[in-house]
Write a structure and sequence with these properties.
43% of the residues lie in helices and 24% in strands. With 215 residues, it is an alpha+beta fold. The chain has two domains: 82 residues; 124 residues, 2-Layer Sandwich (Dna Ligase, domain 1). α2 runs antiparallel to α3. It is elongated, with a radius of gyration of 24 Å. Keywords: Membrane, Transmembrane, Transmembrane helix.
């Protein structure tokens, strides 16, 4: 049988742990994100379910030895599971966007907004070869998934495609990218940290574009 003092401590602690977990998740807004991983949702349910099971087992003094082991296991295993569920993955720019975009097969127009200054500038490109060059030049650029967000927006790239429902936006930072939108029903939304040179940023800044102010 579990020690009575330990049982009382755990009965008091478990509800606080559950509430703290929910408050932490709510405060972070992680589970309100459209791109939330289903694994994270399942993990949260398992943790709260396990805490509830442990609480009621302790409350009614049933299988208390097993409950103690479960609680200890949760504390030991949960950090490792969270790590593997949220482990950053490495990819390339070419893999992060559909081939139909990088090949400009379905792209009808590209508009780039310069957001560095208070007064925005923009340029609209309709030449498919020029669009393809911008999208293919950074194809080997290494990207690592992240949820830190961009510290500063430098450029926004809007891609219009054949389908009226589809639109893709790429936000470019110093060392990060955010891809938003969908293509053929596939959600492309993701944030990436750029490893090494930001080839897409260099391509835009070195391009010979006719910028228009205030567009």
């Amino acid at each position: 049988m579990i020690n009575e003092r330990l049982r009382k401590v755990m009965l008091i602690a478990l509800p606080f742990i559950a509430v703290a977990t929910l408050l932490g998740v709510g405060w972070s807004g992680a589970y309100l994100d459209d791109g939330v991983e289903i694994g994270n949702v399942i993990l949260l349910i398992i943790i709260l379910g396990g805490a509830a099971l442990a609480f009621f087992s302790l409350l009614f003094r049933k299988k208390t030895g097993l409950v103690t082991g479960m609680v200890i296991t949760f504390f030991l295993v949960t950090p490792a599971v969270f790590y593997f569920v949220n482990k950053p993955t490495t990819t390339t720019f070419a893999e992060a966007i559909p081939a139909e975009l990088s090949d400009a097969q379905q792209v009808t127009e590209m508009t780039i907004y310069d957001e560095k200054e208070r007064e925005f500038k923009s340029v609209t490109l309709e030449n498919l070869e020029e669009i393809k060059k911008i999208l293919q030049s950074p194809s080997k650029m290494t990207l690592v998934t992240t949820d830190e967000g961009l510290s500063r927006h430098l450029y926004s790239i809007y891609l219009k495609v054949d389908s009226y429902e589809d639109e893709v936006r790429i936000i470019v930072g110093d060392d990060a990218l955010r891809i938003m939108g969908s293509m053929d029903g596939e959600d492309l939304s993701a944030e990436y940290k750029v490893e090494g040179q930001n080839s897409l940023l260099q391509m835009i800044e070195n391009g010979d574009f006719k910028w228009e102010k205030g567009s």
